[in-house]
User: What shape does this take?
Amino acid sequence: MKKKFVIGIIVIILLLTAIISFLFWPPKFELKNDETITLKYGQKYQEPGYKVTKFGKDYTKKVKVKNEINQKKLGTYKITYEIKINGITFKKIRKIKLIDDEKPVITLTGNENVSICPNAEYKEEGYKAIDNYDGDITKKVKVTTKDGIITYSVKDSSGNIAKVKRTITKEDKTSPVITLKGNKTITLYLGNPWTDPGYTATDNCDNDITNNVKASGTVNSNKLGTYKITYTVKDSSGNQTIVERTVKVISKPTYNSNSGSNKGVIYLTFDDGPNEGTTNVILDILKEENVKATFFVTAKGPDYLIKREYNEGHTVALHTASHDYSYLYKSVNNYYNDLFKVQDRVKKITGQTAKIIRFPGGSSNTISKKYSKGIMSTLTKDVVNKGYRYYDWNIDSDDAGSTKTSSGVYNNVIKNLSKNRSNMVLMHDIKTHTKDALRNIIRYGKNNGYTFEKITMSTPMITHGVNN
Ligand code: ZN
Assistant: This one.
């Protein structure tokens, strides 16, 4: 009896133990993947999963998950997995580390490789630093320079470091530029003194280095020939530039109207054209008579007549663009502006740079005195030094003066013709009575043993005395 009781007690104790054990026995609680997960900033947390079983029964669905992650802020967060079975709570915790391991990005304004003048200092062109977590951290960039290399470095709040380099090369590979004042080729008359019109030299790094130019070579203006002046300059980096100027010393032209060597030659010269209605008739007559003449043209009249003069073998020479004395004799500059204007016109039409000229009013004019004293003395020398040849006349047809008839023009010309000299005849192709007199003048010349020629660069100059 006593024995049965004891067994009964033991059985009860075992039973109670079994029941309590069943209740408090922890379930099998598994977290898939690691219990600590590292997440990169910007990467979204994905739950890897979990499983809870107890004595073969699946409780997974009853798990409550508490997620504290703030994806916008770096740090360590907890995820709590909780389950209540038969009134008893079981917990599991997963650690989430949200980190930033990405370097900031530094962007340079301008090139990574910069070449500057040896005497220059590099001027910072700018930079920017952007971090994926911190945002704009340009202000934190540290700039250091060593041996021509600029290093830009920056550290973000997580300690990630970015570095960018810029290489500065000090060099000058560009040669200086020499600019000659005056023409590259200068014609000088024998005996006229040579003076260099000068030059300037500039360099991309050294600026004005005119004083470093060395001019070598000599011009003997007392000896005919072609001379070369060489201008050499080096910049501080040793880049060298050489420029040459040619000086041609040529024989002096004949200045006296009576010493022309082409005796018995008639030079028909026509000023102030071209002009529609007269120049074309004059060209027709010259063509029919097979005579070549010289036209001192202006800015007026149609281009095609100049083209015709040129095509038909006449000399297209330069008179003036404006024929306005008050403008062109006001200054040497004005004179050349006016001359270059008509020179450009002729060049455009004929393709030739005309160098044969006639001063408006002739070199002996006195009207220029009114506008600039002594200008003709200057110009008559200067044009020759510039390679022009100017022609006045020794027979004036007076067709622009008081003679208003063709017979008058004819008489003025033929009575002054001489076989003992060259005959430079001044006429104007804008005048009606001139065109009407022309054929008879040519016939007279031919019948009396004269020859007709156009002016060329080798025709001796026929010049008046200068009166201003
Ligand atoms: Zn004129």
Summary: Confidence is low (pLDDT under 50) at residues 254-260.
